[in-house]
Amino acid sequence: MDLQTITYVFVGFTFAIYIGIALWARAGSTKEFYVAGGGVHPVLNGMATGADWMSAASFISMAGLIANMGYGGGLFLMGWTGGYVLLAMLLAPYLRKFGKFTVPQFVGDRFYSKKASTVAVICLLSASITYIIGQMTGVGVAFSRFLGVSNATGIYIGMAIVFMYAVFGGMKGITYTQVAQYCVLILAYTVPAIFISMQLTGNPLPQLGLGSDLAGTDLSLLTKLDQVVTDLGFGKYTTSVPGSTLNMFVYTVSLMIGTAGLPHVIVRFFTVPNVKGARSSAGWALVFIAILYTTAPAVAAMARLNLHSTVNTAVMSGGDMFDNNNNIVYEQRPDWMKRWEVTGLLKFEDKNGDGRIQYYNDKTKDPEVIAKAAAAGWKGSELNVNRDIIVLANPEIAMLPNWVIALVAAGGLAAALSTAAGLLLAISSAISHDLLKEIWMPELSEKNELMAGKIAMAGSICVAGYLGLNPPGFAAGTVAIAFGLAGSSLFPCLMMGIFSKTMNREGAIAGMLAGLGVTMFYVFAHKGIFFIKGTEFVNAIGGPNFFFGISPNAFGAIGAIVNFAAAFAVKNMTAPVPEHIAAMVEDVRIPRGSKESVGGH
User: Fold this and answer.
1) For residue 238, what is the DSSP state?
2) In-domain check, residue 424
């Protein structure tokens, strides 16, 4: 059976499972729609949380980022996993004991203000909508490559699948679908990694293979990779740090607090029966997440070694595919390159007209690399490889069996669809419950609220699809900005709501607006803010990384500092917190009675 047919079988089978689960787990009440009835087993909830957590960014992009950045890419591992620990230890149990199942609802009750709840909805929508752009883009990439359809068609199909199980099933359908999606994505990620680790090192565990010697040699995989990338004019893989150390530190913190503030993950801890279940599911989720996150560095290193070994033969030679300078003759390029060129994520530009692929670092200052490239008439690197294809193309580069390649396709789609569904539920519940039911129409019946939730979900899917097809410039190519928005606005508010009995509504509102505002300003000012003076455009403020070299993706940590500062400054100038609110905060922080705290709608 050819690759295309096998891929259709694998993807079609997994989609049938998702739709079948949705039909079985249809939500019949608002509690089932928002929190799956609150009775999900902690182990299953941990698995669903893992799927919700490990988005297209984790499955498709993270290993690509690490492969591209080298050692510095570790900030994504530290930021995302560290953020989960923050969420599990400092937020989830207390929010679960509070008993409200949405972040804006907690903010509104804790800060005794519908205005505070409305501001929280704005922050939630800003972060979630930005985040979902990356998920829909990932769906388009996976569909276009593996199913032979256009990027737009892929997004439309993804929208239809999510519609089936999210609109009908709500959180109940999404939860059990995510359990299935976790199984698919973790197999799709680890099976190719095991194959490739065995090929390169003879060790079946990728985590150990990363530190092992290459098969048949006494040279370690990482040492060989350092040699390969430096031969091509890139920095050493094991020591490369993009940007400044300050930027790397701030970036890591931004990802951590942004992760802890993402509402679609927080809501998962309301689907278990009690606080004990929330703590247990947090632990199980960490186990399930760790399987992928400990595998990612090995996938990244092995993929980059395979890529460079194929494209430029610093470690290979001979055969009709290569010329005398060990460059690939374009017409004889391998099949995997031909397939990925169709997607536009791999591009060849013959700058010197010799029909051969020369792949060196354009920015290299190494005289030996420059001389070697110049000898072959080099006029700049001729191959552009999008980092997002690293995981998806790796099995093809390594020439693994077709069924493994098809499994990766199904896994990539599972990762993107699972997180997209979680985000869409967070968006729709914010609209239907936090705005419509809690603020605009308090008298709304449960039946009508459920219908409003489904309509809001359908509308959110349409908006998400449109943004996936037409991503705005400030968010294109990254989901890190979404983490920055969540970390600068919601995380400080939640922390102060739980751990500060004196934080009042005015302070919370001022903090959220200040944190979100300064972060959004920096994202746009990164490209410069201009005014017209005479006949010229003059840069009034901004420019690339103009604040101490910090990139927009990393600015969420600075926004959080602004949030805390503004909140406490305003709090000290306004009326104190009512006594009953302070008592409520004290009660939420007391762990006793956790088994009896079941929360509610």
Assistant:
1) T
2) yes
